[in-house]
């Protein structure tokens, strides 16, 4: 005790070092993770997996980072986040008020970054000659109205974001059971629809713009349907241009939700995807970026043409 009184600066230094050590032990940060370095697990809505696969591949090629992607349905993904399975996720909607409060109760304020816009697409087999479908017909089918021309809908998963989206449009809490089919993956939807005339598949358009090698042959056997909106302004395909102009009626925004609570890879990855390189990847994929990356043009006063030899 006398030594501490005699050397007050030494005592202060020891107290400061003890405080820092306690803070580090209490931190949720794992290993040497920073915004551009380390390892983490990220959940992704399975309807969005192709575009996020591309983003992770480029991000890892530029930085000393390893991101393990786990694809889940929307409902499973939210439950996993709330149960601390992972604190980073890519969703087609922001967190609800109750979901955000659940994280705030843990003294974590979720950070939401909008990264682009995609769309829900309707597909049919090539044997269906009509490539047009009215959104009103789909909604009437979901509501059980007999005047609908739709015979059956096929979803990837009963807990998926596409099911939730269509239920919201139809004003339903749960999906009807009659003539509605669900599988485990978007690949299953594409394959089933290609082999069954009269079925309408419902899936994220990213699976059509960026099909896996195994799915390219199967996709040749389906039609992507043009959809008429509820205001009857015409039929439009889920193209990048139609999404940008607000003509396609089933567009939805995409978000990275970061609930890490510290400066980790969640923050770095979200900044990367929202930045120039990430937005170029989204643009190239056929989806709509939040901001269209600029192009650098070189203007020359003269052009030198070398004579042919």
TrEMBL record:
Q: Which residues form the PBP domain?
A: 39-275
Q: Which InterPro entries match?
A: PBP_domain, Phosphate_ABC_transporter
Identify the stretch annotated as signal peptide in this record: 1-23
What are the record keywords, sorted? Signal
Origin superkingdom? Bacteria
Among the Pfam families in the record, one is PBP_like_2
Q: Which PANTHER family match?
A: PERIPLASMIC PHOSPHATE BINDING COMPONENT OF PHOSPHATE ABC TRANSPORTER, PHOSPHATE-BINDING PROTEIN PSTS
Can you name this protein? Phosphate ABC transporter, phosphate-binding component
């Amino acid at each position: 005790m006398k030594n501490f009184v005699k050397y007050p600066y030494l005592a202060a230094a020891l107290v400061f070092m003890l405080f820092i050590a306690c803070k580090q032990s209490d931190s949720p940060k794992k290993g040497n993770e920073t915004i551009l370095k380390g390892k983490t697990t990220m959940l992704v809505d399975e309807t969005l997996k192709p575009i996020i696969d591309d983003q992770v591949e480029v991000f890892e090629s530029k930085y000393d980072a390893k991101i393990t992607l786990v694809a889940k349905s929307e409902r499973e993904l939210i439950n996993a986040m709330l149960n601390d399975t992972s604190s980073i996720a890519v969703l087609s909607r922001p967190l609800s008020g109750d979901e955000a409060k659940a994280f705030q109760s843990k003294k974590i304020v979720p950070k939401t970054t909008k990264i682009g816009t995609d769309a829900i697409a309707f597909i049919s087999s090539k044997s269906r000659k009509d490539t047009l479908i009215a959104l009103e017909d789909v909604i009437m089918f979901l509501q059980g109205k007999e005047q609908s021309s739709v015979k059956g809908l096929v979803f990837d998963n009963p807990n998926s974001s596409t099911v939730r989206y269509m239920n919201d449009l139809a004003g339903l809490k749960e999906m009807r059971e009659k003539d509605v089919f669900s599988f485990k993956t978007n690949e299953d939807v594409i394959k089933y629809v290609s082999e069954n005339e009269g079925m309408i598949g419902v899936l994220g358009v990213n699976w059509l713009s960026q099909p896996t090698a195994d799915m390219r042959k199967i996709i040749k056997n389906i039609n992507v349907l043009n959809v008429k909106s509820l205001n009857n302004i015409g039929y439009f395909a889920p193209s990048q241009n139609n999404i940008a102009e607000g003509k396609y009626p089933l567009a939805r925004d995409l978000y990275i939700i970061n609930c890490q609570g510290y400066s980790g890879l969640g923050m770095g990855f979200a900044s990367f995807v929202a930045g120039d390189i990430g937005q170029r990847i989204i643009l190239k994929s056929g989806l709509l970026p939040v901001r269209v990356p600029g192009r650098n043009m070189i203007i020359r006063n003269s052009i030198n043409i070398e004579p042919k030899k």
